[in-house]
Amino acid sequence: MPTIMLDPGHGGSDPGASQRGNLEKDLNLSIALRTRDYLRKNYDVKVSMTRTTDTTVSLAARTNRANRENVDYYCSIHINAGGGRGWESYIYNGPVSSQTVRAQQTLHKYVMSVISKYGARDRGIKRANFHVLRETKMPAILLENLFVDTTADLNLLRDKSFLNILGDAIGEGLARALSLKKLAKPKDPEKPDTGMYYVIAGSFASRKNAETRSNMLKKNNVEAIIKTTKAGNATRYRVQAGAFRNKKSAEQRRNFIRNLGIKDAYVTADS
């Protein structure tokens, strides 16, 4: 089964571009989640994400993870700024495979065939020396999805139905670019590829702080384990407070933990 990594740009302490309270990081995540769900529902593919919540992830951590997991294709999702209009795609401006070139052409053509009907302009197929394109070992693309600081584009980006259409178009474009196998019967996009939902109750640079959080949860009869993860060259200690096959059960555990005062607890499909 092929694997695609979706990379919602920015996040956490890095908001990206913004205009009148509309933050690039939030729009990137909304589009990427919709793309993930479209692919999972309709195609035989595993979809991984560099982030599924509003968290800070360095550029190195994003590409290191993609390379470590040896994914088949990497797609970085961004919103443009600078006073222009329209949609554009990028691949690395250095040596790339013929597959990288063909995939960009197929994806770009399909997405534009959909969103041009809503007035989105085609800014063209481009190449650039972006970190996520240069440092990934697999074919990679970066999409700039309209301009947050141009009224006509922002009006589209603020329209939830358009964001859904855009996310679906990117998903279908990726499927066509990679010749993914369509599922005979669409599946539930809410079900993670691992089949499990995890409740995360904190991520710490210090193991001692993670242990303090874990002990606090255990005193409140909540199972908790500490899992070591890597973010670039930094080690993080993540407190996992449950693993569930049912999303509703995971959300109930998350809500219970939030009521204990841990307001940043969240559910993820990533282990």
From TrEMBL:
Which PANTHER family does the record associate with it?
N-ACETYLMURAMOYL-L-ALANINE AMIDASE, N-ACETYLMURAMOYL-L-ALANINE AMIDASE AMIC
> Which SMART domains did the record assign?
Ami_3
Q: Which InterPro entries match?
A: MurNAc-LAA_cat (IPR002508), N-acetylmuramoyl_amidase_3 (IPR050695), SPOR-like_dom (IPR007730), SPOR-like_sf (IPR036680)
Keywords carried by this UniProt record: Hydrolase
Which CDD domains is this protein grouped with? MurNAc-LAA
Query: What EC number(s) would the UniProt record show?
Result: 3.5.1.28
Annotated organism of origin: Oceanobacillus luteolus
Top-rank taxon, per record:
Bacteria
* Signal peptide residues on this chain, from the entry's feature table: none
Gene Ontology MF terms in the entry: N-acetylmuramoyl-L-alanine amidase activity
**Top-level EC class, please?**
hydrolase
Short name of one Pfam family for this protein? Amidase_3
Q: Does Signal show up as a keyword for this record?
A: no
Protein name, please? N-acetylmuramoyl-L-alanine amidase
Region of interest (Disordered), residue spans:
1-22
Record domain SPOR: where: 191-270
